[in-house]
Amino acid sequence: MDQPYVTLNDGQTLPQLGLGVFKVPRDEAASVVATAVETGYRLVDTAAIYGNESGVGVALRSPSAAGVAVTTKLWNDRHEPNAARTALRASLEELGRASIELYLIHWPVQTSDYVGTWKALIEFREEGLVRSIGVSNFTIENLSRIIDATGVVPAVNQIELHPGFQQSELRAFHARHGIATQSWSPLGQGAALKMPLIGAIARKHGKTPAQIIVRWHLDCGLMVIPKSITASRIQENFYLFDFVLDEEDLATIASLDRADGRVGPDPATFG
Ligand code: NAD
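That is the input. Now the predicted structure with nicotinamide-adenine-dinucleotide docked in place:
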């Protein structure tokens, strides 16, 4: 089975599965991304704050990485149109790209003028500097504000989402508005791999817990960006196009959701 792609609300397509590189040191990023590209990944998720865009850029310049899509993100201290433009220019420079496939506002920062920042991203798209624009960690209220103010619906909202924190209310809002949900910390930063019920489903399918969880994201229609720096795990997290979960598995994983299951910061207060 080929890897799946999703069509965004602006008509562009992106791979449903990508590699996340949070906490990957700059000098390791090139080889980690090269391993992922060799494995078949066609999407890499980085951010200005990760400090590794230049390493990602080295791997992306290789001929074997032609056609690989990249996401990067605007950091919290750049919520102002001119600052955002300077930040995007710096990211493009680091990545060695004239344009990128997806640019996200990293966090809303509740006290910031994130509506003004969203207007700047709309301009960047019109200028061809970025192909698609979206946000990350936006709440329903944050999304409603930028949509009401501009009429432009983000293509993607990248949010914390894993079996222990499934975000059904926000996902339902996304579905109503045609926003693709992209799961960050899809493995719960490793914690979800240790859940006994995930282990049981893995044994049933002859797969690993990581493969069950990444497959769950795909089967739920979510975009997903698991992170690893280990070649065997980068491969393991990608080799899952030969099975699907059944109704019983999906019901079991649905039961693992917890209202207090966050492993990362809360967008209501972060930044
Ligand atoms: P994750 O849920 O992907 O877990 C990563 C950890 O799981 C790794 O460090 C590794 O220890 C372990 N792991 C991965 N594959 C494994 C395997 N096959 N077997 C055993 N263990 C395995 O956590 P993450 O890195 O926090 O999230 C993934 C990506 O999401 C990040 O790299 C980043 O790109 C993105 N992210 C975005 C935000 C945001 O605010 N937008 C926040 C956090 C992460």
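The pocket of nicotinamide-adenine-dinucleotide is lined by residues 20-22, 45, 106, 136-137, 158, 184-190, 193, 210, 225-228, 233, 236-237, 264 (CB under 6 Å).
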